[in-house]
Write a structure and sequence with these properties.
single chain; about 400 residues; alpha+beta; 2-enoyl-CoA Hydratase, Chain A, domain 1; Pdz3 Domain; 2 domains; six-stranded mixed β-sheet; five-stranded antiparallel β-sheet; 22 strands
Length: about 400
């Protein structure tokens, strides 16, 4: 089966999406490193049979000048060179030369990490990190059933050091990279709780996080999608059927902080609301080369729906939000989305490495490409610093209020 992806920005849970918009309370998962989500795919080049504007380029590049540079470095560099790293550098540079941030080369290690990001499988301790008002690295929430919780870490614990190294000046990403590691290995965290420091050793493990969460609150179904991965269609469909059986009167589809992922998953989620409607079109060199229609049974068709978006909602999230609004199935609330309107084809290169290539631009049913512009919500609702500090979520509250009217 062919897989296509539309890139991503860091994923967040509901609460971390809330805090994401507040500089002093940015949050991130220890088991997740921000990146552009990619899925598995076969080598399938120019699937549309549409002549590329690059068809006049030579089939092979003249690498003689590259060899000249390599020999000059090899003969003159004062230091030890690594052949694998040199080759990776050439491949990375070639992909970067396209001038497109979403056309990327990943070596085998990085490719594995990106596949893990899409299916929610990581190696780490299983805790969500943020920063407190003083800029200290803080545990936002240990994930239930995973090593951080089992080792006794608690919300609001300050991580003062990792394996004896102070976290002073660390960004969230610095902390994530330092704490993550291979399953079965241990990391020592110096934690300050109620003003008292203590050392807690945590053994890392493989962690898998489902992409969908759902609940029914006062007759309203709340469907939160953190990424569009391999499990999204199954989990979202089950949640939709549960909502239907409980006769919900409205639905909140929370896509805040959702970085995107698989295009097919976005089409399938949109199809829960849409019957025989266009979800998106793909265009290449300005020409429509494929149209995606909703499919299956629209379990949620006709149920009043509000979609929550913010600046972390990207790609597949924007496809879904755009499809539901353009087809009159939902209204959008929150903040303007990220703005990623291109589609990538992952190409496995045989040695575990991966090339991700932008193959088309996608357009909403109304014919709009949102690249670098994002999607503006019908109703803008902000989250203040005070709201974030207090753990309040005015965006969700506004959505629930609208659905109850």
């Amino acid at each position: 089966m062919e897989t296509k992806v539309a890139g991503a920005v860091p994923k967040k849970s509901l609460m971390s999406a809330l805090k994401k918009v507040v500089p002093i309370l940015l949050s991130a998962l220890i088991i997740f490193v921000a990146g552009w989500a990619v899925g598995g795919g076969k080598i399938h080049i120019n699937k549309y049979n549409v002549a590329s504007q690059n068809s006049k380029l030579p089939n092979k590049l003249d690498y003689s000048s590259v060899d000249t540079i390599y020999k000059s470095i090899k003969d003159n560099y004062d230091g030890k060179l690594d052949e694998a790293k040199l080759l990776d550098g050439i491949k990375t540079g070639l992909a970067n030369a396209a001038g497109d941030p979403y056309t990327e080369y990943f070596n085998p290690k990085d490719a594995k990490d990106f596949y893990g990001q899409l299916d929610g499988t990581f190696e780490g301790i299983g805790a969500e990190l943020g920063k407190d008002a003083n800029g200290s690295i803080q545990i936002i929430s240990p994930l239930a059933g995973y090593p951080a919780e089992k080792a006794g870490l608690k919300p609001k614990d300050i991580i003062a050091a990792v394996d004896g190294k102070s976290t002073s000046g660390f960004t969230i990403d610095d902390a994530v990279k330092t704490i993550r590691g291979k399953a079965g290995t241990s990391v020592k965290l110096t934690v300050v709780r109620d003003g008292t420091p203590q050392d807690i050793t945590v053994t890392r493990a493989a962690i898998q996080i489902p992409s969908v969460k759902s609940e029914v609150k006062d007759g309203i179904g709340i469907l939160t999608i953190s990424r569009f991965g391999d499990d999204t269609t199954k989990l979202a469909t089950a949640a939709a059927q549960d909502f239907k059986s409980k006769n919900v009167t409205g639905i909140v589809l929370d896509l805040r902080g959702d970085p995107g992922g698989l295009l097919d998953a976005a089409v399938n989620v949109s199809s829960l609301w849409l019957k025989d409607k266009t979800v998106l079109t793909e265009r290449r060199d300005g020409k429509i080369i494929q149209t995606y229609q909703s499919k299956g049974s629209p379990v949620l068709n006709g149920i009043k729906t509000v979609v929550l978006i913010n600046s972390g909602s990207a790609s597949a999230s924007e496809i879904t939000a755009g499809a539901l609004r353009d087809n009159g199935a939902a209204t959008l609330m929150g903040l303007k989305s990220y703005g990623k309107g291109s589609v990538q084809q992952p190409i496995n290169l045989g040695d575990g490495s991966l090339l991700k290539v932008t193959i088309a631009r996608w357009y909403t049913p109304d014919g709009k490409n949102i690249d670098k512009e994002g999607i503006k919500p019908d109703t803008e609702v902000k989250i203040s610093d005070d709201d974030a500090k207090a753990g309040n979520d005015p965006q969700l509250a506004a959505a629930l209020a609208q659905l109850k009217n």
